[in-house]
């Protein structure tokens, strides 16, 4: 997958901007809230089109605008230096930029946005781009803009709206903003689709928590059910934020839903991230595309409590090192699949339903016991409710490891850290909660301190929030891994008022309330007497 950004040319002027009645958004407004304004404006255009359908319409156009911005910036540079080279695809591949044929360039579509045939033009542009970049984009881009259900006026207005993104800024800034908008739109559509939306999208605050705890600086990163690729985007962002660069991590993934796989490929491309993302409709259990590879970091949000995953061919699968998972629930199949793919020093973070921490149905309790005794469970985090678009089922995070004696950290063998984060988070609307940056930092810092990382500070148990337990203690709890069983109750704040004073105040309040009650009873009795007298008259 091409990645990297073209060199900036200060003499290259941005393309002329068209006026749009849909939005007044400018690059100068590309601050907090800009993405939301863009999404609301775009959402108004869909009218009666279902979010699940409109999602591909909008995201496909944002992707097209992104790769065109990179291409046209490089094209302008070459036109100044060597016009003959400007139409040579190799000149763009050398800079890890997608080659965009002339009729597929955003400037061409923008100039024809009000044409009645704009839908057909977009389809032709998508086909031309796939043909020009078959290795990276074959079968990825949406190509149904010309269908009658899509109003050409709506498409033209959407093109005008997307043309506003990043205009007036440098090309690098424009692409950064486009990437932010793409990511925000993914979340917005997940919310609009409700339960179905959660199938391709993991809430950003949950992904940030996983990434902040695992700290994937360098090495191989894997997601066996990668959805739209949010885990990878956050991992690359983490690397760049901490002084690394694109390419410090090698990304691998698998996805069984072809539509979602296409979203992931576009999501990574719009961020300039190279990745080996495999698709097959059989899924990671029946057809493990990367079965011989082991990974330094695994991040996953498998579908909760999947009941139709089993196949007789899995009966003697070598991945079931801790016991054959029950056919009616895939939770422990996912955990063992992930452990199978961990490198000797690898660590994994997995989102699962809360029931996975305590269930004893079929063989689950026995598998969990064996995992604990094998010392592969490193940390358990109970999450607050209402974090997910797709389900109200409470969720938790499992952190797994092949060794608790990693180089540079303290020896944690025989211990498990429990974090109860159920009281954290802030409601962002009537139905959904998010973990704040402070919440994510508190959870991650606690884990890092417990692991004994350099500069992470000293770890201390915090009643009601975190506690580490020995494997003997976990055995005493029947190998149940629910953090609430271990962290205890939060310490109450010490009251500086002496007990005698507090008791006197309580006694006074109680007497006043008794007096008020007696007065109210007297009024009710008097009212009842009046009613009886009137009825008797």
TrEMBL record:
Q: Which residues form the signal peptide?
A: none
Q: Which reaction does it catalyse?
A: a 2'-deoxyadenosine in DNA + S-adenosyl-L-methionine = an N(6)-methyl-2'-deoxyadenosine in DNA + S-adenosyl-L-homocysteine + H(+)
What broad class of enzyme is this?
A: transferase
Q: Which domain of life is it from?
A: Bacteria
Q: Which Pfam families match?
A: HsdM_N, N6_Mtase
- Whether S-adenosyl-L-methionine counts among this entry's keywords is yes
Quote the InterPro entries the UniProt record gives.
Answer: D12N6_MeTrfase_N, DNA_methylase_A-5, DNA_methylase_N6_adenine_CS, SAM-dependent_MTases_sf, T1MK-like_N_sf, Type-I_RE_MTase_Subunit
UniProt keyword terms in alphabetical order: Methyltransferase, Restriction system, S-adenosyl-L-methionine, Transferase
**Where are the stretches annotated Disordered?**
1-24
For this protein, the Enzyme Commission number is: 2.1.1.72
All residue ranges annotated as the N6 adenine-specific DNA methyltransferase N-terminal domain in the record: 35-150
Domain DNA methylase adenine-specific span(s) in chain numbering = 174-495
Q: Per the record's keyword annotation, is S-adenosyl-L-methionine included, yes or no?
A: yes
Q: Which Gene3D superfamilies match?
A: 1.20.1260.30, Vaccinia Virus protein VP39
Protein family (similarity comment): Belongs to the N(4)/N(6)-methyltransferase family.
Q: What is this protein called?
A: site-specific DNA-methyltransferase (adenine-specific)
């Amino acid at each position: 997958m091409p990645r990297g950004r073209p060199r900036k040319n200060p003499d290259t002027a941005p393309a002329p901007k068209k006026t749009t009645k849909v939005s007044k958004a400018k690059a100068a407004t590309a601050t907090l809230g800009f993405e939301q304004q863009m999404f609301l404006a775009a959402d108004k255009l869909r009218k009666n089109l279902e979010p699940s359908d409109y999602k591909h319409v909008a995201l496909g156009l944002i992707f097209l605008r992104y790769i065109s911005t990179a291409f046209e910036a490089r094209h302008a540079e070459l036109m100044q230096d060597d016009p003959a080279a400007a139409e040579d695809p190799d000149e763009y591949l050398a800079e890890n930029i997608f080659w965009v044929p002339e009729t597929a360039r955003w400037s061409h579509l923008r100039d024809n946005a009000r044409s009645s045939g704009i839908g057909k033009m977009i389809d032709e542009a998508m086909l031309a781009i796939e043909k020009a970049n078959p290795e990276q984009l074959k079968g990825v881009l949406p190509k149904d803009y010309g269908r009658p259900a899509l109003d050409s006026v709506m498409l033209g207005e959407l093109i005008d709206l997307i043309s506003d993104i990043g205009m007036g800024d440098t090309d690098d800034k424009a692409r950064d903003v486009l990437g932010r908008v793409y990511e925000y739109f993914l979340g917005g559509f997940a919310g609009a689709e409700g339960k179905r939306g959660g199938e391709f999208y993991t809430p950003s605050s949950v992904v940030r928590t996983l990434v902040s705890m695992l700290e994937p600086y360098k090495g191989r990163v894997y997601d066996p059910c990668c959805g739209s690729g949010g885990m990878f985007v956050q991992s690359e962002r983490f690397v760049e934020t901490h002084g690394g660069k694109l390419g410090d991590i090698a990304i691998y993934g698998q996805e069984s839903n072809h539509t979602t796989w296409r979203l992931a490929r576009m999501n990574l491309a719009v961020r300039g991230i190279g990745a080996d993302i495999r698709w097959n409709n059989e899924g990671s259990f029946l057809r493990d595309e990367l079965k011989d590879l082991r990974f330094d970091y695994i991040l996953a949000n498998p579908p909760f409590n999947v009941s139709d995953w089993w196949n007789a061919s899995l009966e003697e699968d070598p991945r079931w090192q801790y016991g054959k998972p029950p056919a009616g629930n895939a939770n422990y199949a996912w955990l063992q699949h992930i452990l199978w793919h961990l490198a000797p020093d690898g660590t994994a973070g997995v989102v699962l339903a809360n029931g996975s921490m305590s269930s004893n149905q079929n063989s689950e309790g026995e598998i969990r016991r064996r995992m604990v005794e094998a010392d592969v469970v490193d940390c358990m985090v109970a999450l607050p409710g209402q974090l997910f678009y797709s389900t109200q089922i409470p969720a938790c995070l499992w952190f797994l490891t092949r060794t608790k004696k990693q180089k540079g950290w303290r020896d944690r063998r025989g211990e498990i850290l429990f974090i109860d984060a159920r009281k954290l988070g802030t409601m962002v609307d009537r139905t959904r909660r998010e973990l704040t940056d402070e919440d994510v930092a508190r959870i991650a810092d606690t884990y890092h301190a417990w692991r004994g990382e350099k500069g992470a500070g000293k770890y201390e148990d915090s009643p009601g929030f975190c506690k580490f337990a020995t494997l003997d203690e976990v055995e005493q709890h029947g190998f149940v891994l629910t953090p609430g069983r271990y962290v205890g109750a939060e310490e109450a704040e010490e009251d500086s008022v002496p007990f005698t004073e507090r008791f006197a105040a309580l006694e006074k309040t109680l007497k006043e309330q008794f007096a008020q009650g007696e007065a109210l009873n007297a009024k009710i009795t008097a009212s009842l007497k009046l009613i009886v007298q009137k009825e008797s008259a």
